[in-house]
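seq as requested:
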Amino acid sequence: MSSFHTSSSVSLKIADSVATVTIAREHGNAINDDVLIGLDEAFRCAREDPTVRGLMLRGKGKIFCPGLDLQEMIELERYEVAGFMQRFTACLTGLYRFDKPVVAALSGHALAGGCLLALTADWRVLQRDKMMGLNEARAGLPIPFGMSNLLRDVVPPARIEEVALLGRNYRNQDAVDVGFAQEICDEADLEQVCRERLKEMGDKEMAAFAATKRYVRWRTIERIERWDPVFAEEFLDCWFSDGTRERMQALVGKLKERSR
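struct tokens:
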């Protein structure tokens, strides 16, 4: 067994052919550059280790991931937000094309960018009564174009507008019905269920598994890489609009109050 940190916010443990990647940082595991660096490095190590036949992605604490760290990002200039969003999209696209089985063990809420992070996994197991949702609309933000393409792969076509435009959170069977999760289980069973799914996928011929995953996902990855830069300025215009800045300031104020 080996265990180490790939950044100050992300740890990697490799044991029994499974790489467990855990996000653990202040602000409820919100995504910043340190998280992106840690995820990139952890997945690289797992990819290059021939003993690893599957990866479990999890978050420490009550929240898997609430999305981008607005407390940090609200202070950034336009060019800094642009750079961060490029790194965010590149990181999640890299996770989405990871060629070994990935299961997300969602023991806490997965919201906004945290929900998008979970959607890069091949299989998502959500703990009972925990929530998943894309609530960017509540902050006055669009879902980043590149990552919005993940919805085409996981959400039933008749429900994409509901999921993307209304900003609702889903739990239990509702989360399964909209495609966010494949299974719901109790806290005591979460890790065992995730390991069973990893074994089920990891027992396959790995080259064939990787090829099939690549065939299924190539069109989405192509759309992300080709078109995300085209819509980048529109996203930034929304981010820096007066109304959105007011909404984000209010959200950041509430987050700071909760942390006191």
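The chain has a mean pLDDT of 96.
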